[in-house]
Structures are given as C-alpha cells and as structure tokens.
Write a structure and sequence with these properties.
Elements lengths: L1 H18 L14 H5 L8 H17 L11 E2 L2 E2 L1 H11 L8 H4 L4 E3 L9 E5 L8 E10 L4 E7 L2 E6 L4 H4 L2 E6 L3
Antiparallel strand pairs: 1-2, 3-8, 4-5, 4-8, 5-6, 6-7
Helix pairs in contact: 1-3
C-alpha cells in the first residue's frame, strides 16, 4: 500500500514539473515538433493539494504502527520512543530531521496551538512538570473545532490521543512547530 502511495505521489510530482515548465518535453527529442509540445494539456497543479496529499500519506503510514510498544531510545519497528517514531515516519518520506525531541523543537516555524494543522509537531515537557525542557513530541493528525488529535509513542505504545481529553499533555504543552514540507 505504501509503495502505491509513494508511486502515486512520485507521478504527481513529475507531472507537476513537466506541466509547470521545469522540464521541457521537447528537450529530450533530437528534433523539434511544436505540434507535439502544443498538444500536451496545460494543467494547473495546486501545490497546497500536493502537500495535503503528502501529509495524509504520512498519517496513513504513521497509523500502521498503532499498538507497537514503547522502547526507550527506540527508532525502528521493534519499538519507538517519541522522537524516534516521528523521525522514522518523516524519514520514510525523504525528510532528514533531527532524532531528538529537543532537536525537532528547533526546526520549522513556531506557531500558536490555535494555528496547528495536520502534520505539525507538538512539544511537551517530560514527566517532571517543573522541568522546562522538552521531553515529548507528537504529530497532529486531525484538527477540528473541539480538539487537536495527535499520534505519538508513549509508555502506552503508539497511540492516538485528543489533546483536549488528556490533562497530562494539556498542562505540559510547550510549543507547536510547522515544518514546511
């Protein structure tokens, strides 16, 4: 399934380059035939729709690991810690991001929680609420009027939580970050 999604996104990206003029179809020919080039339909590719499809694919992929146990310093399918999980998901889609939650908190653009959308990262204090240091990271998978839904690796394994329903995370929230994918 993930290979099909990857192939689909790859084809869309190639079409976007061709139709936006980044690749000239006639440059690969040893002859020039303007009739052939002129017959290629000009379509407008909405880059925001491509980004939304990419993020949706990442979320579908991330959900494949629901129930996988937590593993301290884990970064593969045998078990993940919170940042190892986020790193693994983004890496599978070609994004090289930091491996630690503190490192992740230093990339992208800081946003207000009210601006959070699918694919954004949320950062929290660790178990010691008095320590201001980032200790946990999750990925937003849905936003509605009532709450933000996030997926993350916790001591309970990889799970989906609604931020508004989990006091533990509500009181530990530190910041949200938007990564420009």
């Amino acid at each position: 399934m993930k290979n099909i999604l990857f192939l689909f996104l790859f084809v869309i990206l190639i079409k976007a380059f061709v139709f936006q003029g980044n690749l000239n179809a006639s440059s690969y020919n040893t002859y020039s035939d303007t009739n052939i080039v002129a017959s290629i339909p000009k379509t407008i590719v909405d880059s925001s729709k491509l980004k939304e499809n990419l993020i949706d694919s990442m979320i579908v992929f991330a959900k494949n690991f629901i129930g996988l146990p937590y593993r301290y310093k884990g970064y593969d399918k045998s078990g993940f810690d919170c940042s190892g999980y986020i790193h693994y998901v983004f890496n599978k889609f070609g994004y090289e991001i930091p491996r630690s939650s503190i490192g992740l908190a230093g990339i992208g653009k800081e946003i207000n929680l009210t601006e959070a959308r699918k694919g954004d990262l949320l950062f929290f204090k660790g178990r010691n609420i008095n320590n201001k240091k980032i200790g946990h990271v999750s990925m937003v998978i849905e936003v509605d009027d009532k709450s933000i839904t996030m997926i993350h690796s916790t001591r309970r394994g990889i799970i989906i939580d609604r931020l508004s329903e989990i006091n533990y995370y509500k009181i530990r929230f530190v910041t949200a970050r938007h990564l420009d994918l």
